[in-house]
Amino acid sequence: MKAQQEEKDLEDTKGLHIDALFLYLVRVNQFASDRLDLFDPTRSSCLNKYCRYEFSVLTGVVTMPNFQTEIATSKDSSSLVSTLMAGAFFGALASGPLADIAGRRGLMALGTLIFGLGGILQTGASAISHVYAGRAVTGVSIGFLSMVVPLYQSEIAPKNYRGRLISIQQFSITLGICVANWINFGTMTIANSSSWRLPLGLPLIPAFVYLIGTLFLPQSPRYLIFKHKDKEALQVLSQIRGDGTIYHPDVLMEFAEIKQSISFEQSLDSRRYWRLFQRGTENNRKRLLLGMAVQIFQQLTGANALFLYAPQIFQAAGIKGRYTSLFANGISGLVNLVFTVPPILFIDRIGRRPTLIAGSIVCCICVILMTILSALTGLTSAIGDNSSETAPVQMHPLSTLSNIDEGEATIAFIVMMYLFIASYACSWGPIGWIYPAELYSQEVRAQALGITTAANWLFNYGVTELTPLMYANIEWRAFLVYSIFCAVIPCIVYRYFPETMGKSLEEVDLVFSLNFNYYDVNVHHPQTAMAAIHQVEQIHHLHSRHAYAGRVEDLFGENNGSSLRTRSAQNGGP
Q: If you count Cβ atoms within 10 Å of the first and of the last residue's Cβ in the chain, which end, N or C, has fewer?
């Protein structure tokens, strides 16, 4: 009797599924009959992001003599970096609710306007207080944009190219780092305040272009459906999918899939922030922890510790002179830029998990070798010196290389540092933003990404503040700390991180729903759009029937894959 009842339940849910899908297809035809006038837009998925420029440019500006003479002391230089990160932290926390209120496109425009205001304050500064205000305002805008851009891209990208699209965003970030390094290098010799005003003011130009560009971007179709604007969502889907018409099968299928998923989510508890910290049927708490872990691990690799203090590290490693160290820093920016290209080409073929694991291992090897070089050659003190004109940040001086040939040791250390940057650029750089954007359901995605992005900036701040203290107090062992992190991280990724490549956001949602405790992340878990709709209908149907509420977990138990396919085949399903 029990088996017969289960078969009857599945048959009922199958009927509900077919009825629901039929209803949506009827709606599509109704919308099509309205003869909507659609333009033939380009598929705007690549967004130019200049936030990292603002973060990186200060590493060179604070070393410029004119900036030190006119604006900042050594103590202020260190605090200016932290002010930007603090602003980004609070901006990221606020970005989740704002993205649902103003929309993804609206928050991008707001963030760009605030960025422009911060840039004006910094460029026209006549006192240190103006620079602090500009850095704080700019930080808030960076918090907004660093969350909403991956959010928007993940929601409009097709599943087979989602990783590639967000990797292009990371390419824009590395381009910003590279441009900042070389602008600092080029303007350093200017004998007046233009040497530092020019690097701080140049981002105002792309900010204006970016603001105009947001007016022509399509709104996220998932956001529109979430706001019950189905007709507008169909128009957008027809523009970015298929052949530009709402009759295309890809448009119809994706609309039905998204609509079904969001309808089920909206039938749950409306307290979305609270749902993030509950296990429930969605396992949001585990998703949130995974998203935060990716962002935190991105910082614990030590990449930003090297990027931020690269000029001082190059000087300490034996490269003489501020101008020469900035040149070497510019080369590191080029390495970072070039090695961001491979993920664009291969990230949707290789997968997230293998790339993260391989990247961590290579980074670990590089940092271990840097540790050995530091211990054997005397590269064992902190970076910078209050009294040194080459390093204004308040830190202790690094000793020059000794005990072995200085030239060979310098070359070996810099090569290892460049290899580390290349490995990071191929792995944790792009995937640190790709993976969190793929984990969450539509109802909580913006809030969750706001929290995970805030975690990124919080640990970025911590790494920035603690790194010079580590160099000063534990000397060469500072590199050893980062090598330990890089060794532990791939083990955690292998054990707990499921693969998201090739799945739609709704299919990823199904991976985490209910059966996550039984889900083996190291086994391929195929899903299709039709299967996603089918399973969502089962959840919705069984939740609505109190007599069978306790059976929901059974549908997603350990043997879900084989049992579901068997039952579906017996009932004439796919």
A: N
Do the beta carbons of residue 268 and residue 275 sit within 8 Å?
Answer: yes
Q: Can you tell me the distance from the alpha carbon of 170 to that of 182, in angstroms, rounded to the nearest whole number?
A: 19
Residue 356 has pLDDT above 50, yes or no: yes
Instruction: Concatenate the DSSP letters of all residues of 9-30 into one string.
Output: HHHHHHHHHHHHHHHHHHHHHH
What percentage of the chain exceeds 70 in pLDDT?
A: 70
For residue 77, pLDDT over 70 is answered with no
Binned at pLDDT 50, 70 and 90, residue 361 comes out as very high
- How far apart CA 121 and CA 215 sit, in angstroms, is 25
Q: Supply 525's token pair.
A: 């878990």
Structural contact between residues 446 and 378, judged by C-beta atoms closer than 8 angstroms: no
Q: Is the pLDDT at 156 greater than 60, yes or no?
A: yes
- Residue 193: partners with Cβ closer than 8 Å, 6 or more residues away: 66, 67, 70
Q: In 193-282, which residue ranges form alpha helices assigned H by DSSP?
A: 194-201, 204-214, 221-226, 230-240, 249-266, 272-275
Map residue 559 onto helix, strand or coil.
coil
Assigned token pair, 561:
């894959």
Separation between Cα atoms, residue 464 and residue 86, nearest integer Å: 11
Angle (deg, nearest 10), helices 51-61 and 162-187: 30
CA distance 462 to 238: 45
pLDDT level of residue 12 (50, 70, 90 thresholds): very low
- The per-residue pLDDT for range 174-215, each reduced to its tens digit, is 887 788 778 877 887 787 888 888 888 888 888 888 888 888
For residues 245 and 33, what is the distance between their CA atoms, to the nearest angstrom?
12
Q: What share of the chain is helix, strand, coil (3-state, %, to 5)?
A: 75, 0, 25
Measured in degrees and rounded to the nearest 5, phi and psi for residue 545 equal -115, 105
How far is 16 from 19, CA to CA, in rounded Å?
5
Q: Which two structure tokens, joined as six digits, stand for 267? A: 């039938």
Question: Contact, 115 vs 138, CB < 8 A?
Answer: yes
pTM here is 0.76
State the sign of the Cα–Cα–Cα–Cα dihedral 562, 568, 571, 574: negative
> What is the model's pLDDT at position 541?
56
Token pair in block for residue 400: 């020059």
Q: Are 434 and 347 spatial neighbours (Cβ–Cβ below 8 Å)?
A: yes
Give me the pLDDT at residue 391, please. 40
The C-alpha atoms of residue 110 and residue 80 are separated, in whole angstroms, by 23
Nearest Cα residue to 499 out of 12, 75, 263, 162: 162
Question: What is Dmax (Cα atoms) for the chain?
Answer: 89
Contact 340, 430 (CB under 8 A): yes
Q: What is the pLDDT of residues 242-251, one digit of tens each?
A: 677 777 888 8
Q: Which two tokens stand for residue 154?
A: 């993940």
- Residue 32's H or E segment, with its range, is helix 2-32
Paired tokens of 321: 């002179």
Radius of gyration for the alpha carbons in the chain, expressed in angstroms and rounded: 26
Q: Rounded to whole angstroms, how far apart are CA atoms 34 and 455?
A: 46
Count Cβ neighbours within 10 Å for each residue of 446-460 and write b for 16 or more, e otherwise.
Answer: bbbbbbbbbbbbbbb
Check: CB of residue 433 under 8 Å from CB of residue 169: yes
